[in-house]
From TrEMBL:
The organism of origin for this protein: Siminovitchia sediminis
Matches recorded under Pfam families: AAA_lid_14, GAF, HTH_8, PAS_9, Sigma54_activat
PANTHER family found in the cross-reference section: C4-DICARBOXYLATE TRANSPORT TRANSCRIPTIONAL REGULATORY PROTEIN DCTD (PTHR32071:SF57), TRANSCRIPTIONAL REGULATORY PROTEIN (PTHR32071)
Domain Sigma-54 factor interaction: from-to ranges: 343-573
CDD domains: AAA (cd00009), PAS (cd00130)
Record flagged with keyword Secreted: no
Cited InterPro entries: AAA+_ATPase, AAA_lid_NorR, GAF, GAF-like_dom_sf, Homeodomain-like_sf, HTH_Fis, P-loop_NTPase, PAS
Protein name: Sigma-54-dependent Fis family transcriptional regulator
Record's keyword annotation contains Transcription: yes
Gene3D superfamilies reported in the protein's UniProt record: 1.10.8.60, 3.30.450.40, Homeodomain-like, P-loop containing nucleotide triphosphate hydrolases, PAS domain
Assigned keywords, A-Z: ATP-binding, DNA-binding, Nucleotide-binding, Transcription, Transcription regulation
SMART domains xref list: AAA, PAS
Domain PAS: residue ranges: 210-258
Length: 646
């Protein structure tokens, strides 16, 4: 090692004459060159930059974790050199002294050169020194007396090592400064060892933080599951549950953790799940919860959890049957889409029916919709459900006349595995189970066989069903809306319909009138249908002649609203012009005009009603009504005068 007198001479040669002797260590030569480039005054006798107390306090808060870990290790390092004139100093990555530990006399000596907490000892501030240079080269370094660039430091020998976080980024530096005669080769090693201990503690703290974060993420993730969840080890001990499971079984996590799963559930399937290497998929069971009378039907699934190809546990999921069915209903379209707003018409007849239906919607009573085919019984059924307190539950419609008698039972009540040849494995729920909490619409109830009427009556009485081929009783909570185009009282007299079932269904009867009994609604219905249809087929600007509506008003409409809609669709699709007249209508409509008109009290009355309807459609605007009819406003006024309308 070169003695200090030689180093001092080399320093003077560089400072006064610009000559850099190659005998000086390379790392020091490079640091001196940088110091000169920074414009550092080599004759500086004390620190030149220092933070205010507020700035220092803010820095310490920012570096709280580093300080917390480093301080005990710094004190341990100081214990080896206590009383020998050494300082142990922790700096940040900029060379700011954050904490100094040392003998009282040494601390006073350091204070004389502003080598104190808050001082900045970077190369830019103080030239070559163990703190500033160690940070730049990112390596442990020992700087002896005159190797320091400024005279303020040349009475010290300093040993320093940078501190890195778990990503290898420099976040601080540990320095030990003292008299050169008491420094030995192991001094730097002691600093390096202490820094290694600090970095190790930082890594442990980071791992702990990550584990805590991963635990929080796991808990947050599992609690977002829509299914209940249990994780068990190979012995069946419960390691983790989620909030959904707690809601399903009515138990908290602290009541479950550490228990064997068989202690929580008495179902034998859980012994199979724990002991078997195979997985279970959507097995339907009724949970038998220990110490609880709660009964919950769920679908249970299990999946192995592996670590390095070795199974270490299992994940069990629980789906509540009623929630599964809600999802099925949602995606299969088992929801009411129509409302009373979709019931078009302003006639007193249809207004009265809407009032009756809206009143029925406010109850849970069974409703019987009576009306000819095409009058809109399905529309009213959906509107009643949509207006009821069951609106958020399923609406399931089944056509009793469109399903073979042999299959209607399995459709309504479901069946168990193996109930009949071709039965789906595992069985399947019926419409009553799928409609749980909602409404089941039995269309064409008059077509139901007497055998099925008996089963339906039992459901209405007991509010329970048994799947075909099964023995388990399943409670059901559904509202019945039935519909028929038959006179059920006559069918009862003929022996085709059970009287007791009729009275069960006929709690709130609602008669939906045929279209011929509310002719004044025809123009409004036709206009709405044509607007929707013309936009759908790409003919949005169709004009309609008044005579077109007159022809519609004169027809008897045996197929009611459905027939009107179908004929208008045919006219719009086949039409080639922009103006619709009666000639566009099919022969069965225009061919019947004369017969209908003869049955009416007077032809002029039809024209009068057509004029009034046109004005109503135009919301009382006579100019708009005239344009709508394709006539001059003066002509409209003359026609109104003719019929005595002012």
């Amino acid at each position: 090692m070169i003695d200090n007198d030689s180093i001092r001479k080399f320093w003077e040669d560089f400072v006064y004459r610009g000559h850099l002797n190659k005998s000086v260590k390379k790392v020091i030569r490079e640091a001196w060159l940088r110091s000169k480039q920074y414009g550092v005054n080599p004759h500086t006798q004390s620190g030149t930059r220092i933070l205010s107390l507020a700035e220092l306090e803010e820095l310490r808060k920012k570096k709280e974790k580093l300080l917390h870990i480093s301080l005990p290790l710094m004190e341990n390092l100081y214990s080896f050199v206590k009383g020998s004139g050494f300082l142990v100093i922790l700096c940040d990555e900029r060379g700011v002294l954050m904490k100094s530990i040392g003998d009282e006399e040494t601390l006073l000596e350091a204070e004389n050169i502003q080598f104190v907490e808050g001082a900045i000892w970077s190369e830019e501030a103080m030239g070559a020194n163990a703190i500033g240079t160690g940070l730049i080269i990112d390596q442990p370094i020992q700087v002896w007396e005159s190797e320091h660039y400024t005279e303020a430091c040349q009475s010290w020998t300093c040993s320093a090592a940078p501190i890195h976080d778990s990503n290898g980024k420099v976040i601080g530096l540990l320095n030990m400064s003292g008299p050169h005669e008491k420094v030995h080769p192991h001094t730097l090693g002691m600093v390096v060892s202490t820094v290694a201990a600090i970095e190790k503690q930082l890594q442990i703290m980071e791992k702990t933080r990550r584990h805590a974060m991963m635990k929080s993420l796991l808990e947050a993730t599992t609690d977002t599951f829509s299914e209940g969840m249990i994780i068990v080890d190979m012995a069946g001990n419960i390691l983790k549950t989620n909030e959904v499971l707690h809601q399903i079984i009515g138990k908290k996590e602290e009541e479950l953790l550490g228990l064997e799963i068989q202690e929580v559930f008495k179902n034998k399937i859980f012994q199979e799940i724990v002991s078997s290497n195979t997985n279970v998929a959507d097995r339907e069971i009724k949970l038998n919860i220990a110490g609880s009378i709660r009964q919950v039907r769920v679908l249970v699934s299990s999946k192995g959890i592996f670590q390095q190809k070795r199974r270490i546990g299992k994940l069990l999921t629980f789906k509540e049957i009623h929630k599964v069915r809600q999802m099925i209903n949602k995606f299969s379209g088992n929801q009411a889409k129509m409302t009373f707003h979709d019931v078009i018409g302003a006639s007193s007849t249809i207004r009265k029916v809407k009032e009756e239906a809206m009143a029925a919607a406010g109850t849970d009573s069974n409703v019987l919709l009576i009306g000819e085919s095409g009058t809109g019984k399905d529309l009213f059924a959906q509107a009643i459900h949509h207006e009821s307190n069951r609106r958020h539950k399923p609406f399931i419609a089944i056509n009793c006349g469109g399903i073979p008698r042999d299959l209607l039972g399995s459709e309504l009540f479901g069946y168990e595995d193996g109930a009949f040849t071709g039965a789906r494995r595992g069985g399947t729920p019926g419409k009553f189970e799928l409609a749980e909490g909602g409404t089941i619409f039995l269309d064409e109830i008059g077509e139901m066989s007497l055998e099925m009427q008996v089963l339906l009556l039992r459901v209405l009485q007991d509010k329970k069903i048994v799947r075909i081929g099964g023995y388990k009783v399943v409670p059901v909570n559904v509202r019945i809306i039935a519909a028929t185009n038959k006179n059920l009282r006559e069918e009862v007299k003929k022996g085709n319909f059970r009287e007791d079932l009729f009275f069960r269904l006929n709690v709130i009867p609602i008669h939906i009138p045929p279209l011929r009994e509310r002719r004044e609604d025809i123009p409004r219905l036709a206009e709405q249908f044509m607007k929707n249809l013309s936009e759908r087929v790409g003919k949005p600007h169709l004009q309609v002649a008044p005579s077109f509506y007159e022809a519609l008003l004169k027809y008897d409409w045996p197929g009611n609203v459905r027939e009107l809609q179908n004929i208008l669709e045919r006219v719009i699709v086949k039409g080639t012009g922009r103006l619709l007249g009666p000639e566009e209508l099919p022969a069965e409509v225009v061919g019947d005009i004369s017969a209908v008109s003869q049955s009416l009290p007077m032809k002029d009355e039809i024209q009068k009603q057509a004029l009034l309807q046109s004005i109503a459609i135009c919301e009382g605007n006579y100019s708009k009504a005239a344009r709508y009819l394709g006539i001059a406003r003066s002509t409209l006024y003359r026609k109104l005068e003719k019929y005595g309308i002012k």
